[in-house]
Amino acid sequence: MKENFRQFLDRLRQAGELVDLHQAVDIRHIATLVDQAKTALFFHKVIGYDMPVVSGIIRSKERATMSMGCENFGEIEQKLAAAIANPIPPRRVNGSPTREVTLVGDDVDLYKLPIPMSSIYDGGPMITAGVVIARDPELGMNSGIYRFIVKEKALTGIDIVTPNNMRLFAQRAFERKEPLPISISIGTHPFEITGSGYRAPLGVDEMAIAGGLRGEAVDLAPCSTIDMPYIADAEIVLEAEILPTGWTYPEGRFGEFTRLMGGLHWNPLVRIKAISMRKDAIYYNLHMPWENTWLAAPTRYASIRQALRTANVQVKDINVTLGGCAFWHAVISIKKGAGEGKNALLAALSVMDLKHVVVVDDDIDVNDPTDVEWAIATRVQGDKDVIVIPGARAKPLDPSLLQGAGVVPVGAKVGIDATIPEGIPLEHYERITYAYADTAKVDDYVKGKKDTIGKHGAEREVEDLANKILEAIDKAPLYYTDIAERFSGYDFNTVARALGHLHKTEKLWQDSRGRMCVRGSKFAAVLPVKK
Question: How many CB atoms lie within 10 A of CB 287?
Fold first, then answer.
């Protein structure tokens, strides 16, 4: 798919999913206006800046789905899984429209970019939509989305507290006492944002995954002041170096994907060496938390499904819940074999930063919280089915963990096996289903439908019907409602009296599943012997 950032904006506009505001707007109002809007917003005139701002472009399930060229949200996971399985390496090109304006040296000035504030307690303007590309001499390429707080006109902080490949690259450079060159591409298509947001193993180039999403190679062009590529279609590119200062400078606070204000972090500094942009560049501000959430969720789906496939567990469905911020909670339904509820938990809890996982049988709707809670209520014994794994790697943004300078916290992972326990008869879990639900429809009766009236039998006819019922249940046990249906030529009152006659004459019994059968037959339930 050859669509670039601007073409995607045009597609949103044509679909009524982007509104253009041509009046003057104070940059301090942008975040709250986007939060209130049902569409993405394009601010053409931002007071004090010569560049427009767009925000909220993937802030809904519908726009996230559109961004990936899909018909429904579930297709994104399938498309991402295909891209991971069939990555397309990036293509190197010599130049791009991003080179129309280039600022270096003293001309580098981040204050000329319309970088909004977001939350009341933010520590400063924050670059939120930069696709960062870095290289380690031994470990290869890495791409990711990281935030940059503006400190000076050519200096920022970068948030790399969470253990990930970018932090590892920066740590290795720090140990060599060398800066780590990075390019920061702002205003890229969501294909590149999603690809870089997938936490790939070391040695896997996330831009190749972005190429798999596109169905063609992502073009990368060379920076001018550092030996690094950037995304050629970007609106703005910052050429920079993570300085070997270590995790020693205050960074934040910021309104995080958790829907909470994050704490003050200690992070490295970043020197901006050059700014390149299109002559009519558009600044893209990724609005937290939902723009982050809607494209983060599919990466979790793909990783969970891969982990369960490796564990040889058959998955029916997955729900990475919004209540868990699309990072921490997952509900997984499986086609269960003996012991596989626990295996599924262990596999899923190994994925990324998942914190709490519930595994259910395939009769449970993972998207229905009431159904999931019902499974927990009726299928879980806490001493057997709740697993707690202490001391696991945790995400520092978890506000329930102790924080501190230079501390990478560990926490507990919890798994709940809410599948039907082994050894429990399945009939204990037969759900209530109402007789005639497939044929008796209330709308028909509201419109005047009438039922036919069955024959009301006299006492002799009741005895004759009882004998017919006895003959039927002698061949195979039948539920009460099955008998009523089979002999529907009689009204229900007559059928009930016939069964009452069989009970009175001590010919009627029930099997272990509650079906009517002949007393003393091979089907008849036997009273358990008390020990």
Answer: 25
Q: Alpha-carbon distance 170 to 242, whole Å?
A: 7
Taking residues 116-135, what's their average pLDDT?
A: 90
For residue 196, the model assigns a pLDDT of 87
| Euclidean distance between the first and the last CA atom of the chain, given in angstroms as a whole number | 72
The rounded distance, in Å, linking the Cα atoms of 282 and 40 is 14
| Residues in CB range of 437: below 8 A, 6 or more apart | none
Domains of the chain, earliest start first: 85-291 (2.30.110.10), 311-424 (3.40.1670.10), 442-518 (1.10.10.10)
3-class DSSP assignment, residue 480: helix
Q: What is the pTM of this model?
A: 0.73
Q: What are phi and psi of 181, to 5 degrees?
A: -65, 135
Kindly state the tokens that stand for 400.
């329930």
Residue 290: predicted pLDDT: 66
List beta partners, residue 393.
410
Tokens encoding 423 = 């050894």
Cis peptide before 253 (omega within 30 of 0): yes
3-state secondary structure of 165: helix
Does position 152 have pLDDT exceeding 90, yes or no?
A: yes
pLDDT (0 to 100) of residue 8: 95
- Residue 377 Cα distances to 94, 402, 416, angstroms: 61, 32, 11
Q: Confidence band (pLDDT; 50, 70, 90) for 401? A: confident
Burial class of residue 405 in the structure, from the number of CB atoms within 10 Å of its CB (0-12 exposed, 13-18 middle, 19+ buried): exposed
What is the average pLDDT across 498-516? 93
What pLDDT score was predicted for residue 515? Answer: 93
The DSSP element (H or E) to which 192 belongs, if any, is helix 190-197
**Residue type at position 155:** L
Burial of 195 by CB count in 10 Å (0-12 exposed, 13-18 middle, 19+ buried)?
Answer: buried
What per-residue confidence (pLDDT) applies to 403?
A: 65
Largest CA distance in the chain: 108
Q: What is the pLDDT of residues 406-417, one digit of tens each?
A: 566 788 999 999
Q: Report pLDDT for 531.
A: 59
State the Cα angle at 115 between 111 and 117, rounded to 5°. 115
